Amino acid sequence: MHLKAPEHQVAGHIAKDGKPGPLVDDKGRFFKPLQGDSRGEIEVKFYESFSSNTEIPDHIRRYFPVYHGTQAVEGSDGAAMIVLENLLSQYSKPSVMDVKMGSRTWYPEASEEYIQKCLRKDARSTTVSSGFRISGFEVYDHKELSFWKPDRKLLNGIKVDGVRLALRKFVSSNTLSDTSSKPDSAFASSVYGGSNGVLTQLLELKTWFENQTFYHFNSCSILIIYENESIHDDGARAQVKLVDFAHVHDGNGVIDHNFLGGLCSFINFVRDILQSSDESTDN
Ligand SMILES: O=P(O)(O)O[C@@H]1[C@@H](OP(=O)(O)O)[C@H](OP(=O)(O)O)[C@H](O)[C@H](OP(=O)(O)O)[C@H]1OP(=O)(O)O
Ligand SMILES: Nc1ncnc2c1ncn2[C@@H]1O[C@H](COP(=O)(O)OP(=O)(O)O)[C@@H](O)[C@H]1O
């Protein structure tokens, strides 16, 4: 089995200081290291529960990576990995964004030290103010014919205006590293709009979150993906997926207000960009 580091990972842990990072194979699978201090265990428990939960409708299941169990991986010093569907395997020039949901990324059962660390990051980013933060993104630059990724440290500190700008850059065709040029939002309607676009998918998820009480998706991310190669012909093939279940808890019959609130807020940001790009094409 030939394994390599994923080309378009936009957030989360990477192989560093002897610790394994995620890997992908050529058969469409994504291997995520089992994280220590119960996180790996919690994520496996979630995937086992979710994949056998017969009350999850198919139209919702498609928003989650397919789970293929766990496996000790030779290429990674025998480390145990969670084996998932590689969400990017069918994309050749993907733009990818990771949006961490919720107005708090901590939960009462966590250690005081962990809560304090989360609180600092939540307050410094748009987590507290807007109910989500952009954790990372990478865009295909149609002018430079290469991928562009903003600096993670800078991205972590952006405020609401920065989020609006990032959401526009994510769907723009002009040179993205040039801070003086205004993003043209050329792909806003093909990526965010339409019956298969991001907004429609987010609204479908919202309907489920308004009712589901199985799980509380603490610190979970929405991954947005689209294809640049086919954007002018076959379309953007935009997909919304949920990833990172290392802090999911039982919902115990209670709505996940933290995720739902963040989702509603994120929907409003996406809708605003769609509306403003419609207005600019009308003029
Ligand atoms: O260690 P850090 O500071 O890189 O924090 C990780 C976060 O990075 P960031 O907030 O972007 O700096 C990281 O955030 P992203 O996935 O990159 O959005 C996770 O929150 C990670 O925790 P976990 O894997 O969800 O348990 C976080 O790891 P832990 O601090 O929880 O180990
Ligand atoms: N199933 C997947 N297929 C493809 N890429 C993925 C998948 N899951 C996660 N990723 C990539 O890895 C990043 C980190 O994933 P995540 O599960 O949040 O890891 P961590 O727990 O280290 O934060 C995501 O932002 C995304 O770029």
TrEMBL record:
Q: Name its GO BP terms in alphabetical order.
A: embryo development ending in seed dormancy; inositol phosphate biosynthetic process; pollen development; pollen germination; pollen tube growth; pollen tube guidance
Organism's domain of life?
Answer: Eukaryota
Query: Which GO terms label this protein's molecular function in UniProt?
Result: ATP binding; inositol-1,2,3,4,6-pentakisphosphate 5-kinase activity; inositol-1,3,4,6-tetrakisphosphate 5-kinase activity; inositol-1,4,5,6-tetrakisphosphate 3-kinase activity; inositol-1,4,5-trisphosphate 3-kinase activity; inositol-1,4,5-trisphosphate 6-kinase activity
The EC code for this enzyme is 2.7.1.140, 2.7.1.151
Pfam family for this entry, one: IPK
Alphabetic keyword roster: ATP-binding, Kinase, Nucleotide-binding, Transferase
InterPro entries per UniProt:
IPK, IPK_sf
Biased region (Basic and acidic residues) positions are 14-26
Catalysis: reaction(s): 1D-myo-inositol 1,3,4,6-tetrakisphosphate + ATP = 1D-myo-inositol 1,3,4,5,6-pentakisphosphate + ADP + H(+); 1D-myo-inositol 1,4,5-trisphosphate + 2 ATP = 1D-myo-inositol 1,3,4,5,6-pentakisphosphate + 2 ADP + 2 H(+)
**Disordered, as annotated region:** 1-26
According to the UniProt record, one GO cellular component term is: plasma membrane
The record's similarity note reads: Belongs to the inositol phosphokinase (IPK) family.
- What task does this protein carry out? Inositol phosphate kinase with a broad substrate specificity.
- What protein name applies here? Inositol polyphosphate multikinase
Q: Which organism is it from?
A: Brassica oleracea var. oleracea
Which taxonomic lineage does the organism of this UniProt entry have? Eukaryota, Viridiplantae, Streptophyta, Embryophyta, Tracheophyta
